[in-house]
């Protein structure tokens, strides 16, 4: 399935046992030449607190707390495949239980709105050693450059750089250096944002554990928050990514909402062991 081109392999753990070695399975499945090809692996599991639980693994096998594009696909999956019948769902993640609303037509969910919760802005909770609570427009020396960056966690950590022009040099040259910079003890996702107007941004991303992806939902939400904090955007923004658009809102109640598509591409079997 994919959300805005951010593609993962999903395993229905309501019916199947999770793979014994999840890290090795995520790496093998994600390989775009010798596997299925994906940005990572997502397990759709039963939950004691919610309608389902999402566990998310990057293409390098590392587990992340949250995945914004993934959670929309999990919601679509449990609805379309009859695991849940209601259009308002609760899904457990590493960042708590989140609320989602499906947009359904012909008994298939096409778009999903997620309450992504409150952004985490305390530097020690993001976590980053960069100064400032919140760390907005703070200096970071990386890849031979002096950047001004803003850090936000949506349950997972993001480092946002506002730039004039998006380019491969930023994504491939600077992205991996930010991901592995010592200022981020858990590594970090790196977003590059071009502000088109106060209500519209262009984004490219270098994801922790997966490299460049066509979209990152948590990254888009973190970038909206960073844009507001930096005085560059309003609280409602349309975010253009390589794989599609996401509608974002940071409400006056301090919750971030994201709306976007969720698409099932195919299903199949994978030999384990
Ligand atoms: N693409 C995802 C985020 C996936 C996890 C991320 N790479 C991390 O390690 O935190 C999204 O849509 O949010």
Keywords:
two-stranded antiparallel ribbon; Diaminopimelate Epimerase, Chain A, domain 1; alpha+beta; 273 residues; 16-stranded mixed beta sheet; 17% helix; isomerase; binds the ligand N[C@@H](CCC[C@H](N)C(=O)O)C(=O)O; globular; Diaminopimelate epimerase; amino-acid biosynthesis; DAP_epimerase_DapF
Quick recap:
This is Diaminopimelate epimerase. The protein is of the alpha+beta class and 273 residues long.
Notes on the protein architecture:
The model has no long low-confidence stretch (mean pLDDT 97). The chain has two domains: 2-116, Diaminopimelate Epimerase, Chain A, domain 1, CATH 3.10.310; 123-255, Diaminopimelate Epimerase, Chain A, domain 1. With 273 residues, it is an alpha+beta fold. It is globular and about 50 Å long. It has four helices and 18 strands. The ligand N[C@@H](CCC[C@H](N)C(=O)O)C(=O)O binds at residues 6, 56, 58, 64, 67-70, 156, 189, 207-210, 213, 216-218. Homodimer. InterPro entries: DAP_epimerase_AS, DAP_epimerase_DapF. This is Diaminopimelate epimerase.
| Rg, alpha carbons | 18 Å
State the helicity in percent bands: 10-25%
Q: What is the H-and-E element order?
A: EEEHEEEHEEEEEEHEEEHEEE
CATH topology of the largest domain: Diaminopimelate Epimerase, Chain A, domain 1
Report mean pLDDT, rounded to a whole number: 97
Flag low-confidence runs.
Answer: none
The general outline is globular
Structural class based on helices, strands and sheet pairing: alpha+beta
Helix tally? 4
Let me know the CATH homologous superfamily of the largest domain.
Diaminopimelate Epimerase, Chain A, domain 1
| Overall CATH architecture of the largest domain | Roll
Q: What count of domains describes the coordinates?
A: 2
Strand content: 35-45%
Counted beta strands: 18
What is the CATH class name of the largest domain?
Answer: Alpha Beta
The first-to-last residue Cα distance is 24 Å
Which hetero compounds are present in the coordinates?
A: ligand LBFN2T5F
What about the largest sheet?
A: 16 strands, mixed
Protein name: Diaminopimelate epimerase
Subcellular location: Cytoplasm
Active site: 67, 216
Binding site for substrate: 6, 58, 68-69, 156, 189, 207-208, 217-218
């Amino acid at each position: 399935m994919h959300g805005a081109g951010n593609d993962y392999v999903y395993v229905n753990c309501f019916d199947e046992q999770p793979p014994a070695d999840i890290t090795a399975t995520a790496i093998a499945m994600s390989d775009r030449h010798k596997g299925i090809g994906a940005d990572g692996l997502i397990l759709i599991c039963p939950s004691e607190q919610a309608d389902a639980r999402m566990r998310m693994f990057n293409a390098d096998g590392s587990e992340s707390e949250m995945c914004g594009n993934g959670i929309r696909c999990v919601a679509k999956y449990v609805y379309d495949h009859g695991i849940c019948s209601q259009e308002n769902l609760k899904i457990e993640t590493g960042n708590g239980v989140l609320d989602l609303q499906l947009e359904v037509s012909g008994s298939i969910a096409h778009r999903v709105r997620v309450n992504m919760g409150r952004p985490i802005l305390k530097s020690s909770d993001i976590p980053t050693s960069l100064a400032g609570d919140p760390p907005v427009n703070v200096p970071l020396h990386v890849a031979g450059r002096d950047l001004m960056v803003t850090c936000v966690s949506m349950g997972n950590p993001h480092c946002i750089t506002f730039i004039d022009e998006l380019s491969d040099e930023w994504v491939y040259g600077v992205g991996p250096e930010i991901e592995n910079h010592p200022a981020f003890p858990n590594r970090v996702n790196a977003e590059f944002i071009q502000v088109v107007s106060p209500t519209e941004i262009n984004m490219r991303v270098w994801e922790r554990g997966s490299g460049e992806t066509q979209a990152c939902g948590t990254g888009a939400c973190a970038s909206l928050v960073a844009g507001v904090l930096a005085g560059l955007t309003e609280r409602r923004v349309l975010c253009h990514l390589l794989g599609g658009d996401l509608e974002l809102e940071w409400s006056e109640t301090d919750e971030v909402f994201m709306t976007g598509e969720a698409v099932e591409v195919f299903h199949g079997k994978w030999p384990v062991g």
